[in-house]
Amino acid sequence: MGVDIAFWVLAIVGIAAAIAVVSLRNVFHTALMLILCLLSVAGIYVTLSADFLAAVQILIYVGGISILIILAIMLTREVQHGSLSNKLRIPVFIVAAVFLGVLIFAMVNSPWQISSLPPVEPTTPALAGKLLGEGGFILAIEAAGVLLLASILGAIVLVREK
Amino acid sequence: MSVSLEHYLVLSAVLFTVGLFGALTKRNAIVILMCVEIMLNAVNIAMVAFSRFITPELLTGQVFAIFIMVVAAAEAAVGLAIIISIFRKRDTIETTDINLMKG
């Protein structure tokens, strides 16, 4: 029951914040609404009993990416211009609405095979075994490390003063 | 009625569509990047919901969500670096004004 109430509150806050991100004019308010949306997604992870992912979401998105975005907004002085729309507003709205309808129709009418097992908790040791253990995703982790190194070097090269 | 898999999937679909609308209509490149982050988060919600309701003992969906977060962090860093370097060169980040490669 408590999880249900938490889900509805978090879902409404998250969707309202996402709509605010695409509709507000002030770019800085947009960034703050994005942070609220990311926080409510972290809460959604908690209701799904994914505790490690909720912590990672707050650390990486709310702590890292949002700071990066606010820094970029301040460096580019676009706050005065505001976040305007281009000419495609109405056609894109129609396409998005049709896409949402098809998506919801497909999701609600699919016969999902719901498992009755209780969720694993806490998830951190299980996830560590899954990622680093036998038959896990160790190669993908190495590739992710190389990707992060390459992206950090690329970012430094792109913004370096000549 | 208790919250089921469909609730989470519909929430994920709504967030994805809102992000898609913003990414296709906004003119500010930073706002487009923020909308892409919303879309990635919507996909993550669907991944974790599938992992919780269909295979609760495997956790593979959560592993995929972690890798999506890694790629999203790399994408945000490089994307914002590109935006800042475009701003230095052309003094604007409005996507309608960045048309150097338009025929």
Can you tell me about this structure?
The complex is a heterodimer of chains A (162) and B (103). By secondary structure, chain A is mainly α. Chain A has a single domain, classed as NADH-ubiquinone/plastoquinone oxidoreductase chain 6, subunit NuoJ (Four Helix Bundle (Hemerythrin (Met), subunit A), Up-down Bundle), CATH 1.20.120. Helices cover 75% and strands 0% of the residues of chain A. In chain A, helix 1 packs antiparallel against helix 2 (27-47) and helix 2 (27-47) runs antiparallel to helix 3. Chain B has 103 residues and is mainly alpha-helical. Chain B has a single domain (5-90), classed as Orthogonal Bundle (Helix Hairpins), CATH 1.10.287.3510. Helices cover 75% and strands 0% of the residues of chain B. Chain B is elongated, with a radius of gyration of 17 Å. The model of chain B has no long low-confidence stretch (mean pLDDT 90). Chains A and B meet through helix 1, helix 2, helix 3, helix 4 and helix 5 of A and helix 1, helix 2 and helix 3 of B.
Write the SSE topology:
The complex is a heterodimer of chains A (162) and B (103).
Chain A: H1 2-23, H2 27-47, H3 51-76, H4 89-109, H5 123-132, H6 138-159
Chain B: H1 5-25, H2 29-53, H3 60-90
Task: Give a short overview.
The complex is a heterodimer of chains A (162) and B (103). Chain A is mostly helical.
Structural class of chain A: mainly alpha
- CATH level-1 class of chain B: Mainly Alpha
Structural class of chain B: mainly alpha
What is the β-strand count of chain A? 0
Number of helices of chain A: 6
Q: How many helices of chain B in DSSP terms?
A: 3
Number of domains of chain B: 1
Cα separation of the termini of chain B: 56 Å
Low-confidence stretches of chain B: none
Can you tell me the CATH topology of chain B?
Answer: Helix Hairpins
Mean pLDDT over all positions of chain A = 89
**Biggest pleated sheet of chain B:** none
**Rg value of chain A:** 20 Å
Strand content of chain A: under 5%
